[in-house]
Amino acid sequence: MIQVLFSLFALLAVIGALAMVLNVRNTIAAALSLVVTMISLGGIFVLLEAHLVAVIQIMVYAGAIVVVFLFVVMLLNLRRDVFGPSGQRLTKALGAVAGVWLVYRLLVLLEGRLPATQPLPDGFGGYRDVGMALFTDFLLPFEVTSLLLLAAIVGAIVLAKRRLD
Amino acid sequence: MTGGPELELSALAPVAFTAIGAMLVLLGEVLLSRAKSFLGRPITDAYLTTLLGFFSIFWLILTAVTAGQGLVTGSSEVFNLGHPMMRVDTFANFAILMIAIGGILTCALSVTYLTVLHVSHGEYFALLLLATCGMILMVSSVDLMSLFLGLELMSIPIYALAGFARRDLRSNESALKYFITGSFASALLLYGMALVYGTTGHTSFEGIRGAFDVQGPVGLAGLALLLVGFAFKISAVPFHQWTPDVYEGAPTSVTGYMSVAVKATAFAALIRILLEAFPEVQGRIEPVLFALATLTVVVGNVMAVVQEDVKRLLAYSSVAHAGYLLIGLVAGTPEAIAGVLFYLLVYTFMNLGAFGVVASLAQQGRDCERIEDFAGLARQRPAVASLMTLFLVSLAGIPGTAGFVAKFLVFAPAVQEGEVLLAVIGVLASVVSVYYYLRIPVVMWMRDPAPESVRPEPSGSEWLVLTLCATAVLVLGIFPNLEVLEGQPLLDLARRSAALLFG
């Protein structure tokens, strides 16, 4: 059962990601494809019994972040014709060939060499474990994140505020 | 000891000084701008900027002194709450000292420059201190998690600082370009970290060292992505395209800070992660580093030759210097790494000196940017012209200056390691660099000044920065073994820092 669900979510995540990247015509549809990927990832976290992470994944990514994306898309009202015809076809073709070749080589190398999986420890991904990790082992990164937010806020105000007095 | 992990808060001192300083600067700006006068002088924008600038310098000096003391005593403090995140050891202290010196010089330079550009806002110093905080975190982190947060805490304020001249279109362009390409590089780095974590199950350098499979393709792909992220920050070719545009558009003081402190931080963090987390991979990534070093040295120097804008010229020169430093990384011996550290310190002084001269010549809200704008500077401001010549000669690596000693200390270990080809390329490229560096002195000394051109007199703090940089360039160039810190030459300290990583 878990295998089936995992395959389903994994497939959906990949399809959503591809739909987002390949959909250059309609930015709204691309952003909504991203939601599909994010929700599928949330499903995978549930399968890993990481319920808290799953909820955060859906609330923060599928909810907040994509909404911000949509706002920006609507504010800018971007269409394909805004960008004009794009040149550099040769570069793009070369990039595509190189990318496909790289993926192929990686897949060949990967065959049968993925590291072995291990069973999850007890209570993995629950609020208790995440909380413990956040406030003991990862206390410093947790605190530094607040400095990062401060820097981002000050930076955004400096760049965007109409009058700085 | 039973009863839980021990808290070594003293390891956090350098990070805390800069973070507290940044918050106090923000508070101070609000409080002071409400007051009518302070210390008997009415509050104006320029006066407020000066006050906050020197207040930031105070916190940076505290950081530098702490790092210097740690260097002298050779202390090693770990911030460890069940999981080591930071280790402030001799290596980290050396890097922190460089970063703090860069920060102090930049603050002193910015005080006047911001007023000339008409962007006297106290947030500048808060952002600068936050970026410094991120750099300190980055060079002392021994875990991927704190490394990445340090990188972001360094980058985000600098994106904003690059766009600090808000009415200048080129400054906006510079911030936007740096932000977009920088975020892309951060994402690649993070993906690399995720792959490394996925294959080893550890985020700590120590854990990765124990579990990394040198043959495993996924882990190696992760390492490659990590290298790309770092190559972007040190502006190594082919990840350098952002450098000239961003350096040209950003306010000159910010450009100077980016070119020395960001580079020093990225190199120090790269050296630490390569030696502490991936010591067994040296052989596999050497060809990659070799290619990066060759390309960077050649492209940086060749592109610098055709530049007409001083800031673009210095941008390509900074690419070229990243290449010389990469040569030291290819050699990879303790001696070469010590050379790289010493080089970064010397580079801090000579490059900030050169950018300092460019900043001090700015007037009426615009930079003195074209090479022709320097015509006849020697007639009008002979002292400034002499200092600029000294910095450029040192950047070119001519004997008698610190630039020569630094280059020698990087190239000599490379030759000893059998990387003769690389050293020859480096030396040949340096010969090319003499041409473009000396173009500016030729214009300054041989040409007549443009009619009715007026040169501003550098302010007191600008003189201080320029003299300090010039003294350091000369002293480190003529007596590299001078005992600076309580009877210990900087070179020895660099050697000890490097030796530490080889355990």
What is the share of helical residues of chain A? Answer: over 70%
Q: Enumerate the strands of the largest sheet of chain B in spatial order, edge to edge or round the barrel.
A: 1-2
Structural domain count of chain B: 1
Sheet with the most strands, sense and barrel status of chain B: 2 strands, antiparallel
Short structural summary:
Chain A is mainly alpha-helical and 165 residues long. Chain A has helices at 2-22, 27-47, 51-76, 80-83, 89-110, 127-135, 139-160.
Write up this protein.
- The complex is a heterodimer of chains A (165) and B (503).
- Chain A has helices spanning 2-22, 27-47, 51-76, 80-83, 89-110, 127-135, 139-160.
- Chain A has 165 residues and is mostly helical.
- The N and C termini of chain A lie far apart (62 Å).
- With 503 residues, chain B is mainly alpha-helical.
- Chain B has one domain (9-502).
- In chain B, 74% of the residues lie in helices and 4% in strands.
- A two-stranded antiparallel ribbon of chain B has the order 1-2.
- In chain B, strand 5 and strand 6 form a beta hairpin.
- In chain B, helix 2 runs antiparallel to helix 3 (90-116) and helix 3 runs antiparallel to helix 18.
- The mean pLDDT of chain B is 91.
- The interface between A and B is large, with 28 and 45 residues.
Provide tags for this entry:
heterodimer; A: 165 residues; mainly alpha; Four Helix Bundle (Hemerythrin (Met), subunit A); 76% helix; B: 503 residues; two-stranded antiparallel ribbon; 19 helices; 6 strands; 74% helix
Per-chain topology:
The complex is a heterodimer of chains A (about 160) and B (about 500).
Chain A: H1 2-22, H2 27-47, H3 51-76, H4 80-83, H5 89-110, H6 127-135, H7 139-160
Chain B: H1 13-34, E1 37-38, E2 41-42, H2 45-73, E3 77-80, E4 84-88, H3 90-116, H4 123-140, H5 144-162, H6 169-200, H7 205-211, H8 217-233, H9 242-249, H10 252-277, H11 282-305, H12 310-331, H13 334-360, H14 377-380, H15 382-396, H16 402-416, H17 420-446, H18 460-478, E5 483-485, E6 488-489, H19 490-502
Antiparallel strand pairs in B: 1-2, 3-4, 5-6
